[in-house]
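Dear H.,

Thanks for agreeing to be a second pair of eyes. The structure we're designing against is below in token form, covering all 303 positions.
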């Protein structure tokens, strides 16, 4: 491992300012320090170096040959560090990384991201679609969209909308099967992922007893948006979040024959570390997302 024998950065900053101004007093004014603190830092640096850097005159200071040798390199190094930090800060401030559930990403967020980009062209959005719960302390994510009860310590939490679910199927499959007059009629159809706990919750809410997942073929897709694709292809009935598939219902790819329910307390949430609440890119995304939800609510109210 490479080892650098470097002096303290604080002392280097003081030396660079004093050398540039040829004055401990003016260096102290620039750095917001006392003249005594500047003298102390210079002394530390000279002891570390083993040679004087300044000749102290009654009203001024003058660089020694050693000081003159060190001063240009010090200024150049600090300029390079400042430029690199500014570039990194600009890049970090212009890229927003969103960790989001795959179905939410595909059916709610992605179709709307163009509006965010037009409103904030200075912010590039990187979407990471995953079911894993992001660890903000160790992973590269600025905000996340999660489902659950909203009990995440240390995070600012904004409820978005309930986790609602209902059976949905292709209108063509419905036509082939015939009218569904009761939720119990679904028990005679192929259910996509019958082991999904949403099926048990939904049948129970509809007052249907005797639903046994093991009594149905184990048609499992692993994620809601894949189950939706299978349902649209007429391969069975999926239990889906209707809010994600309004467009598919409108254009006749899916039908929702019975009402949706939501599990008590379960919502989709926008979350981020509390310390980031005033970061401009996080604030911009939060405000835009909440405005989108409000617009959706107004559209539903008018429908």
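And this is the sequence the design step returned. I haven't edited it by hand at all.
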């Amino acid at each position: 491992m490479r080892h650098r024998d470097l002096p303290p950065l604080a002392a280097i900053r003081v030396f660079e300012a004093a050398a540039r101004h040829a004055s401990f007093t003016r260096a102290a004014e620039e750095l917001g320090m006392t003249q005594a603190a500047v003298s102390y830092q210079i002394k530390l640096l000279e002891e570390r170096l083993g040679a004087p850097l300044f000749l102290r005159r009654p009203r001024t200071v003058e660089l020694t040959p050693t000081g003159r040798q060190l001063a240009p390199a010090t200024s150049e190094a600090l300029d390079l560090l400042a430029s690199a930090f500014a570039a990194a800060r600009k890049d970090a401030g212009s890229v927003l990384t969103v960790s989001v559930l795959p179905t939410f990403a595909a059916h709610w967020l992605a179709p709307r991201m163009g509006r965010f980009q037009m409103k904030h062209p200075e912010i590039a959005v990187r979407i990471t679609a995953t079911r894993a719960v992001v660890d903000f302390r160790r992973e590269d994510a600025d905000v996340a969209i999660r489902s659950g009860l909203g009990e995440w310590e240390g995070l600012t939490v904004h409820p978005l909308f309930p986790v609602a679910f209902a059976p949905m199927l292709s209108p063509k499959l419905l036509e082939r099967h015939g009218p569904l007059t009761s939720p119990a009629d679904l028990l005679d159809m192929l259910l996509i992922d019958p082991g999904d706990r949403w099926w048990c919750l939904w049948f129970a809410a509809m007052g249907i007893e005797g639903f046994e997942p093991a009594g149905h073929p184990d048609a499992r897709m692993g994620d809601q948006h894949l189950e939706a694709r299978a349902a649209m292809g007429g391969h069975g009935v999926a239990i889906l979040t209707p809010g994600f598939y309004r467009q598919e219902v409108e254009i006749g790819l899916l039908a929702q024959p019975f009402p949706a329910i939501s599990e008590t307390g379960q919502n989709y949430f926008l979350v981020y570390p509390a310390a980031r609440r005033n970061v401009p890119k996080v604030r911009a995304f939060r405000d835009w997302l909440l405005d989108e939800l409000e617009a959706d609510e107004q559209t539903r109210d008018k429908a």
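Two observations from my side: The CA atoms of residues 165 and 242 lie 6 Å apart. The radius of gyration is 31 Å.

Warmly,
E.
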